[in-house]
## 1
Amino acid sequence: MWGFILFGGQKAPAGTVDLTKNSRVFLFLVDGAIKRYAHYEGNKYPDKLVELIPKYLSGDNQAIQLMGLFYQRDPEVGYRLSLANPNPGEMNIIITSKGIQYQLPPGGGG
């Protein structure tokens, strides 16, 4: 049933996503973990992303991947989460508790 709803009648993609090669997918995965943390921990955000392990993220190699992210608590928007070093020429995605912001690369990105 869920495959039909999510993928329009097509089978769900086979296999898993390699998060070491897809940092933007990992970014949204961590954002979901931050939101679950806030929900279950009294509407507060973690001081550091490692607080999400192991309860909200698996601990295997995700602790190392967390170092590739920029995270800070922010009194205005709750938190800011983005890639620490986006690929050259790529727009950076900044996720906050209020939504998503986009930051053009230096030079406007084309």
## 2
Amino acid sequence: MAKILLIDIETAPNKAYIWRLWTEVTSTKVVFGNWYMLCWCAKWFGEGKVMHASIDEAKGYKAGSENDSELVKKVWNLLDEADIVIGHNVAKFDIPSMNTRFLLNGLTPPSPYKIVDTLVIARKSFNFISNKLEDLVEFLGVGKKMETGGMKLWDDCLSGDKKAFKKMVQYCERDTTLLEPVYHKLRPYGIRQPNVAIYENTSDLLCTRCGSSNVWNRGYYYTNLCKFKRYSCKDCGSWSRARKKEENALALTNTI
């Protein structure tokens, strides 16, 4: 069975000197504080327990410390164990951010894993008025994100406030638990997702999206040259096709 990890991270902001509002910082010379990881939350798909780690739990932690090595090593171990990693904007934010902290903390890459980004599925397969997680969970009727109170929560965490860190972890944990029902809803529509069936040690016909054996043949999938048996999953509603083509389905190639 594939080991599927749902994950979300929270980071500290970069700090920079600015002269006016609404302007981008154009030089690293005005940056006096780089971002680092504040906390992460993760859970194995189908399980209830949410794991977490935050920088304030590190031994000898002091307010303002940017040493995130302990929680970075812990999340590295989880990614090293995972076959598939799911997150919202995980491909452009969470994974590159984690890789950056792995590199800066002297870690090699974890073992390779497949990526499923619910933000990418939402953008490519739908036309939601907003693809933000906080809006998607309400559109899909699966829950509601936790309010943070804005930038003050990050300010309080940077000052070492334990209560603020606790709230930050709760916020991150809520996002992580919401990921699972969001993925359940979007999964049948997503294209080029990892084939979870190949992780099962069986010759039974399984759904490629959810691994269910509750699939049935519904006609054929046609290409320009041949056809394949087509299957629908009665559990998740997704479609898949047979690996082998029908032997009597060859056709002439149109070369005119």
## 3
Amino acid sequence: MNQLWAPWRIEYIKMSQNEKTKKKKPACFLCIKNFNKNKDNFVLFTGKYSFIIMNRYPYNPGHLMIAPYRHIGLIEKCNEQEVAEMLKLIQKSVIVLKKMMKPNGFNIGINLGYVAGAGIPGHIHVHVIPRWLGDTNFMPIIGKTKIINEELYNMYNKLKKVLNKNGKN
């Protein structure tokens, strides 16, 4: 049997078990008012209307999300300031990821609604995922396993350092 060491996944496993046993609905993890804007929550940058946060369960190393502070699930409910700042933070994320990780491309997207794959349909967010030539292999297809080759806190420290050089926060 092959083993893949991914200790950060235990929080996800625990969360899933807790959700099954608790009747109380968990707080939205994208509602920044529910937590500290710090390393333990992987908040990289806070703007006036929106923020950049690392994806705790990344598709690829450097997988970031941009979300407004307001708990809104519909893009048409975002005001002009939120839309403008989120686009600026997407741009900032791409610049920082290019500088630090040198990807060959990006997947940038928004899943609107549960049927579209939105894991958090109540809080709109944009995914920014760096991609590299050859970053797909047999593991997801045959082994049904995705390999993330960078520990989250290490990635946070690296991204935060580059973000601090390229602007406040």
